[in-house]
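quick one before i forget lol
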Amino acid sequence: MPVHLMEMRFYTYGAIKIFERRKTRLQRLRYIITLCGIASPVLIMLVVFINSQRFIIIATMVIITSIVLLTQLFLCIWSLMTQSDDQYHYAIQALTTSNSILERLSALIDSNDTISSRVLSDIRNDYHAQFSGEHAYKISAKEKRYGYRQSLIKFSQACSSCQLKPKDMNASNCDLCGKF
C-alpha cells in the first residue's frame, strides 16, 4: 500500500479530532449564551413579581440580573469578534468532509485491490482541497499537537520526535506530540 495514503489517513484522523474538539468548545459557548439569554428575562420577572417590601431582596435580584446580562453581552460581543458562528459551521463542514475522506482512505488501504490512478487522483485532490481550506480558521500549533497525538494513539505509532508511543491524552514535554 502506498505510504502516502497511510500518511493522509493519519493526518485526516488528527484533523477530525481537532475539529471535533473545536466544535464541542464552540457548541458549549453557544449553549452558555443561550442560557444567559433565557436566564435574564426570568430573573427580571422575579424582580417584578416579588411582592416584598424588602429593598435588599430586590437590590440583590437586580445585581444578579445585571451580572447575567453583562455576561451575556460580553460573550455575544466576543463571539461576534472571533466569528465563532462561522468557525462552528466550518468545523461541522470540515468534520463531514474529513470523515468522508478518512472512510475512503481506510477502504483503499484495507482493500487488496489495485488502485486506479483516477481514484487515487480524486482522493488526493479532495485531501488537498480540504486541508488548504483549514488555513481560513487557522489551526494553532497546540491544536496540531493535539491532533498529532490523537493520531499516534489511534494508529499505535511512536512520535518521530520523542520516540514514545502515547497511550493516552496526558500532555508531555514533547514539542511535537505534547504541550497541547
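fyi DSSP finds five helices and no strands in the chain.
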